[in-house]
Design a protein that fits this description.
The complex is a heterotrimer.
Chain A lengths: L6 E3 L4 E3 L8 H13 L3 E7 L4 E8 L4 E8 L4 E3 L8 H12 L2 E3 L36 E2 L4 E5 L11 E7 L2 E8 L7 H5 L7 H6 L6 H16 L5 H29 L3 H22 L8 E2 L2 E2 L5 H27 L1 H9 L5 H7 L3 H6 L6 H4 L4 H4 L12 H26 L18 E8 L4 E8 L5 E7 L1 H12 L8 H8 L3 H5 L1
Parallel strand pairs in A: 6-7
Antiparallel strand pairs in A: 1-5, 2-14, 3-4, 4-5, 9-10, 10-11, 12-13, 14-15, 15-16
Helix pairs in contact in A: 5-6, 6-7, 6-14, 6-16, 7-8, 8-14, 9-14, 14-16
Chain B lengths: L1 H20 L3 H13 L9 H11 L11 H17 L16 H21 L4 H32 L4 H6 L4 H22 L18 H4 L5 H23 L9 H25 L8 H20 L1
Chain C lengths: L1 H16 L2 H15 L8 H4 L3 H22 L25 H11 L1 H4 L2 E3 L11 E2 L1 E3 L5 H16 L10 H20 L1
Antiparallel strand pairs in C: 1-3
Chain lengths: 505, 307, 186
């Protein structure tokens, strides 16, 4: 008997639901609380239409996940959040989607402002369609405090979201973030799939992380269908993912420079990001990598000739990238701004379950490519980049280290692919295993992307759960702003650069 | 006699025309330099003229919460800027208006403009505009001593309280060169702060939470906004004339003097563009330290003039 | 309240626009304070005040013309103040006077010692709280008030001398006279 009641499983593995033993609600709660207390992370916690609760804990040190489920007798359960902060948003999501009440939740507010999926059961007793971000916000009372309400329409070309600051003078006493403007109902649209639209839905979970989500989606299908992807195709997928990382990290560093008014890096990076995106476009015709990956293999193979052509283009883009970003580290005025803002300490980060760049910037060496490796990362491991201070500078620095590491990976991969002949086009997938569950993790450029699918007796999705890294990390932005200058919010927010639509689904 | 009269009138006319027509060119120059430094082609140098023409024909949206005070800011900025422009010597000869004590009027004309801008910002009730107004007055309180200590040093050197004399005849320049450098350094800081340039403010940012001047005019549109933009460029010109004033020759003949003036303004604009291209903005809490450095520079200049 | 403020601001505008009228009275005040000798040069000699009035005319004229021009702008639909498109703005989003002053108050914190309560929010799910700040007057509240209170406290020890009996007060006078007499002799 293992220390934890939940069943061990690895990323990408599929298994029949009957193999996972149902826990009692009491054991289920205990397993989560004890697991998180022992340093495991709650990476997924969701309900389905049959009042089943699923939870997945990540045991990173053992390179495995632990999964458990329980069936509720009525539409409520005692909240876990008071004992485990990581459950906060998950429980609010469960309440909003299925009207299941987490009793005793300390911050019980809607998160996406959509009507309940369960007919006639709303956790807040709402009867009309809710408006996004219209709710009771936390307030610091007193006549001297002013609230700053930013969004949903922002001054820049970014996604809609509402930020509510409680301020006195320039100091932020508290920040609360209300999203939901981008809710499209992707999880619900995937139920009953996979169908012709499912791949498109997966691609558009968060457009700037297309590859990360599609790859995760593909692995879910391949797991459930029991298909193995040729290793060369997996390597090409790795190239796609790392190119996406390069483009976005370069763009982020440029945007950070722009936010502090440092023009050289800002204007160079805007162009160089385009160069990286164009490398993706050279393979699949889409700068965002649409249609590049396909369940079972690739939509567009990276032929040896093309790989040879890409090498000099990448060398040029890399040289430009290095020049532009080294300017940043050389400018004292920039470092001064970066180091002063947006601090999150490691203990806080662990407790709220930060992932990806934001977690690594706090000194938490967390990376799916190393902790739950799959595909190319098994044979070609990457070094986990991390920094210590947890401020804007650390998040920028981690991005730079990852650029270096990704470039190394890309160089090795393209040189390898230039020698290996292409794979034949993948055959159509066989039908999916019925009444099964599969979970897959991918390290997108923002962080850990998790998809979990449960199939019904005919092999169709009865529940498809997507957890974007932004889901875990938005709370980190709010914490990083406490007691800081409100004028530092833009760089702080940009240093996380989270996805609104990835959160809103 | 009538001929010299004619010359004088033509100089005054040129001064007026410069004050009226030249200002929008300066932001254009700055932006062009910034664009070139960043490897972009950037907007045309005359962009602000086009913008002003466009804005003066556009519909304006007025917030329901605003009153007549809302118009005071834009109108006051331009009116005050034009009058202040009449006090500063530009190219050749004296300023069109000059009298003993006009330095104080000059400084407080800008104080008046700031007061009106802040009032019209607060008139909207917006927390963004309130933040901008608070930042503006806080930083102005620190920029003003630097301006005045510089004036004091120049007044001591020239024995005059009139800008025309103080700037055009800086007195025994050899004795004064050390303090003059300090005064100019202090005023350069004031110039950056008053005109909301990097490193104090970022005129190009779109982030309302970090802006100082721009955020105060968030609710202005149409003609009032045209006045705001024009007023800001006028300030660039007038304070620029103040900054380059003490170092212009002014005895090389009318034509060359005016040429030198325009050239100096061009160099100043390029300098601002260059500075903005190589450094980041300060953190809001560091700005007071920067301004205090300006105060100290001019204070040293004044002390040196006393000994 | 508004009328009083209006009168004061009109007076300010008057002094600004026609300062010549104020120069003579001010000089008189200075000369009265400084006695017979002339310590300061007359304001009129130092600064050419009538110029201010002359320049006020173009200022007002230009201002008026621009005002007319700006006010004649084609107007769109009236909107609320820009609030980033949020659907449910409320009055707490208005800027506050205390926030406006905060920059200078913090900058001068070493003199003003502002008192702040509830400025720090702790915990992942904090409870609603109140923020309060107060800037005591550095002279009245920090020096004069405690100083006078201290003096009052110390001097209250002498209360017993004040009995309310005429005869005792007469005795004080007698004793004082005696002391003075002795002091004179010594």
């Amino acid at each position: 008997m293992s220390k934890y009641a939940f069943l061990p499983i690895v990323s990408g593995q599929s298994l029949p639901l009957s193999d996972i033993q149902e826990s009692s609600l009491e054991d289920f709660r205990k397993a989560i609380i004890q697991g998180v207390h022992d340093g495991l992370r709650l990476v997924c916690f969701c309900a389905d239409a049959e009042l089943r609760l699923f939870a997945i804990l990540a045991e990173d040190a053992a390179k495995q996940l632990r999964i458990g489920w329980t069936k509720l007798a009525q539409a409520s359960f005692p909240s876990i959040t008071p004992h485990c902060v990581q459950a906060n948003l998950f429980e609010r999501e469960i309440a909003e989607q299925f009207g299941i009440l987490p009793q005793g939740h300390p911050w019980f507010k809607p998160m996406r402002f959509h009507a309940s999926w369960a007919e006639g059961r709303d956790a807040w007793g709402r009867t009309t369609s809710p408006s996004p971000a219209v709710m009771d916000f936390f307030t610091v009372g007193g006549e001297e405090v002013h609230e700053v309400a930013v969004g949903p329409v922002h001054a820049g070309v970014i996604e809609p979201g509402h930020f509510r600051f409680q301020c006195h003078g320039e100091t932020v006493l508290h920040l609360e973030i209300a999203l939901g403007f981008q809710h499209r109902g992707i999880e619900r649209a995937l139920v009953g799939g996979p169908n012709i639209l499912s791949l498109k839905h997966a691609e558009t979970v968060s457009g700037d992380a297309t590859i990360a989500h599609v790859w995760t989606y593909c692995r879910i299908l391949e797991g459930l269908a029991g298909v193995r992807v040729p290793s060369r195709s997996e390597w090409v997928r790795g190239v796609a993912l790392e190119l996406e990382r390069m483009a976005n990290h370069v763009g982020d560093l440029g945007a950070l420079a722009g936010d502090v008014g440092f023009l050289p890096t800002a204007s160079f990076c805007g162009r160089i990001r385009g160069d990286w995106l164009n490398l993706t476009a050279a393979v699949c015709g889409s700068r965002l990598g649409r249609d590049w990956l396909k369940p079972g293999g690739l939509g567009f193979d990276l032929e040896p000739d093309l790989a040879k052509q890409l090498l000099p283009r990448m060398a040029k883009a890399w040289a430009d990238t290095r020049d532009a970003i080294e300017l940043l580290w050389g400018a004292a005025s920039v470092m001064n701004r970066f180091e002063a803002a947006g601090h999150v300490d490691e203990a806080q980060a662990r407790e709220i379950g930060l992932v990806g760049v934001a977690a690594r910037a706090c000194g938490i060496a967390l990376d799916v490519r190393k902790d739950h490796p799959s595909g190319p990362y098994i044979d070609h491991p990457i070094e986990v980049s991390h920094a210590e201070s947890g401020n804007v500078h650390s998040r920028a620095w981690v991005r730079w280290l990852e650029l270096v590491e990704s470039h190394r990976f890309l160089l090795e991969a393209l040189e390898g692919l230039a020698l290996a002949p292409g794979d034949p086009a993948p055959p159509p997938l066989p039908s999916l295993a019925p009444s099964s569950l599969c979970v897959a993790l991918t390290e997108g450029w923002r962080g850990e992307v998790l998809h979990m699918a449960v199939t019904d007796s005919e092999g169709r999705f009865s529940r498809y759960k997507i957890v974007d890294p932004s889901f875990h990390n938005w709370f980190g932005v709010a914490l990083a702003m406490r007691g800081e200058q409100i004028s530092d919010f833009p760089i702080c927010n940009k240093s996380f650069n989270l996805s609104y639509c990835g959160h809103d689904l | 006699m009538p001929e010299s009269h004619l010359v004088h009138i033509s100089h005054v006319l040129l001064h007026l025309l410069t004050a009226l027509l030249l200002p929008p060119l300066i932001p254009g120059l700055i932006n062009k330099v910034k664009a070139l430094m960043a490897g972009r082609s950037g907007p045309p140098v005359l962009q602000l003229y086009y913008d002003l023409a466009k804005l003066s024909r556009k519909q304006a949206v007025f917030s329901r919460t605003t009153t007549w005070v809302f118009l005071m800011g834009p109108v006051g900025t331009v009116a005050v800027g034009l009058v202040a422009a009449m006090l500063v010597p530009f190219g050749h000869l004296h300023a069109p208006c000059g009298f003993q004590g006009d330095v104080i009027l000059f400084a407080y004309l800008f104080g008046l403009a700031r007061f009106l801008t802040v009032l019209s910002a607060l008139d909207t009730g917006s927390s963004f505009e309130g933040m901008g107004a608070a930042r503006e007055v806080t930083f102005a309180a620190l920029a003003e001593p630097a301006l005045f200590l510089g004036f004091a040093a120049l007044a001591k050197s020239t024995g005059s309280l009139s800008l025309s004399t103080m700037l055009a005849h800086t007195g025994p320049l050899f004795r004064f060169s050390g303090p003059l450098v300090l005064v100019l350094a202090g005023w350069a800081i004031v110039y950056m702060a008053e005109n909301s340039r990097i490193p104090v403010d970022d005129p190009n940012t779109h982030l309302e939470l970090t802006m100082i001047h721009e955020v105060m005019v968030l609710d202005h549109s149409g003609r009032p906004f045209a006045l705001v933009l024009y007023g800001a460029s006028l300030k660039l010109l007038v304070l620029g004339a103040l900054l380059v004033g003490p170092i212009l020759p002014r005895n090389a003949g009318p034509l060359l003097d005016w040429l030198a003036f325009y050239l100096a303004l061009g160099v100043l604009a390029a300098g601002v563009g260059f500075a903005e291209s190589i450094m980041a903005r300060f953190r809001m809490t560091k700005v007071p330290q920067f301004l205090v450095a300006g105060v100290l520079a001019t204070a040293f200049a004044f002390l040196l003039m006393l000994v | 309240m508004l009328a009083a403020m209006g009168i004061l601001s009109l007076a300010c505008a008057g002094i600004g626009l026609v300062p010549v009228l104020m120069a003579k009275p001010l000089d008189r005040v200075v000369s009265t304070l400084s006695g017979t000798e002339q310590v300061l040069p007359s304001l009129d000699n130092l600064v050419n005040l009538s110029w201010l009035t002359v320049l006020a005319i173009p200022l007002l004229v230009v201002g008026f013309i621009l005002w007319k021009w700006a006010a004649a702008t084609p107007r769109g639909k009236e909107q609320p103040t820009w609030g980033c498109g949020y659907l449910a703005p409320n009055a707490r989003m208005q800027y506050t006077a205390s926030s406006f002053a905060d920059g200078l108050v913090q900058g001068m914190g070493w003199v003003l010692w502002p008192k702040i309560q509830g400025g720090r929010v702790r915990g992942f799910f904090p409870f609603p709280r109140r923020f309060q700040s107060h800037v005591p007057d550095p002279v009245l509240d920090r020096v004069a008030d405690p100083g006078l209170n201290g003096a009052a406290f110390l001097l209250s020890g002498l209360r017993f001398l004040q009995a309310g009996h005429m005869s005792i007060y007469l005795m004080y006078i007698l004793l004082t006279l005696l002391v003075l007499l002795i002091w004179m002799v010594v």
